[in-house]
Amino acid sequence: MADRDRILVVGASLAGLRGAEALRRHGHAGPITLVGDEPYPPYDRPPLSKRVLTGEARADRIALPSRPGLDLTWRLGTAAVGLDLAAREVALATGERLPFDRLLIATGTRARPWPNAAEAALAGVHSVRNRDDSERLRGALAAAPRRVLIIGAGFIGCEAASACRSIGLPVTLADPNPTPLASVLGTRIGAAVAAMLREAGVDYRPSTRVEALESDGEGRVRGARLVGGGTVAAPVVIVALGALRNTEWLAGSGLAADAGGVACDGQCRVLDRDGRAVEGIAAAGDVARFPHPLFEDGPVALEHWGHAVAQAEHAARTLLGQAGAPYAEIPAFWSSQFDVNIKSVGLTNGADSVAVTQGDFGARRFVAVYGRNGRTVAAVSFDQTRWLPAYAGRIEARAAFPPILGATDQGRVAPADPGFPASPARG
Ligand SMILES: Cc1cc2nc3c(=O)[nH]c(=O)nc-3n(C[C@H](O)[C@H](O)[C@H](O)COP(=O)(O)OP(=O)(O)OC[C@H]3O[C@@H](n4cnc5c(N)ncnc54)[C@H](O)[C@@H]3O)c2cc1C
Predict the structure, then answer these.
(1) Which residue has its alpha carbon closest to ligand 1 atom 6?
(2) Residues of 171-196 as b/e, b for ≥16 C-beta within 10 angstroms?
(3) Is the pLDDT of residue 133 over 80?
């Protein structure tokens, strides 16, 4: 590519910033413009459901660190609303059209809203995805509501429950699945999280679906009605129903982009509707759906911090014509809740077996390893990270399951059904 080519990055958050940095690091000297619909420079999201809610971190003090002297042009507070592939232009909400030679798509995800728009609009109903969300919610929590209702026991819901309890607020957490994090960890390991919630004093309601949010008649939420009867009175409701991929702005562009994400090949090159890679356009981070060599069920889209960084680096090298082997970073995430550090490597998708391989499940200090068709596919640690690199190596090597036996800190290894719900329920 020509050294002076104009590179446009749409989405000015983790993947967008790290992608722009990688473009410079790998030698691109031409103009780089970042377009972001949020008014803020890139910031870190993990604290938004943790220390920002407790007041230990301020939402305006979580900027992502960045190398100085990158010479980037910023268009913040400006949404991209369309892409003209033939003209190689991105349309902005302002009516402007930004021409580009190369494009990095990094528009990530947004919080899935409560399905009833009128109920979602009630004062006191919150989600947790961006700085403004968390700042607003922090304000509501600081006012010491008499109860917080959290709908959804995924990572964000459980972390929010942990934050609320650590500042002494009564919390009800309702989720239609039999355990928290059932779709990621399965119910066998999810039971450890259920125990953590209960010990911390969360009024945890598994297998419970919220039917409707109720208004106080003056535009404020006063609680929720549950399917099958019963109500929860709560002037603050946190909707934690997972995420939606920000692909609408690509509608009609000819790119293969839909609710499942922006389809890419193994080099992060975006595919068109016919499945052909489009030269000079790449995607990275939460919005990208891509084939991972370790996962045979077809393309995956990952919502992990480390993946956004690694894939942005790969996409940048692809845009510069420097890509080597296909992107194959092992997925990894962490979560901290109730003073326990949960970490994971690999993907539990489709796992048919799980075994606690190290530590003490009852004490919530253990490693659980997941197998699928006799191969090791994932490992999750609760306050016991030191084994994870070893298991990451086994996952990469597609080692037989269970992969490590007779190791330190290992009792009897008894593989069991992980208990993934047939189709995990939401909300
Ligand atoms: C509350 C919270 C806690 C988390 N905690 C953890 C954790 O503990 N561990 C972990 O591994 N991961 C965690 N994650 C996930 C991690 O933060 C994400 O994987 C990461 O932010 C993805 O980066 P991204 O740049 O791909 O997408 P995003 O961070 O979603 O950024 C996309 C950006 O693009 C903008 N945008 C969208 N559409 C447009 C448009 N049309 N025009 C212009 N801009 C647009 C968005 O507003 C946003 O600023 C957490 C996420 C959240 C929300």
Answers:
(1) 46
(2) bbbbbbbebbbbbbbbbbbbbbbbbb
(3) yes
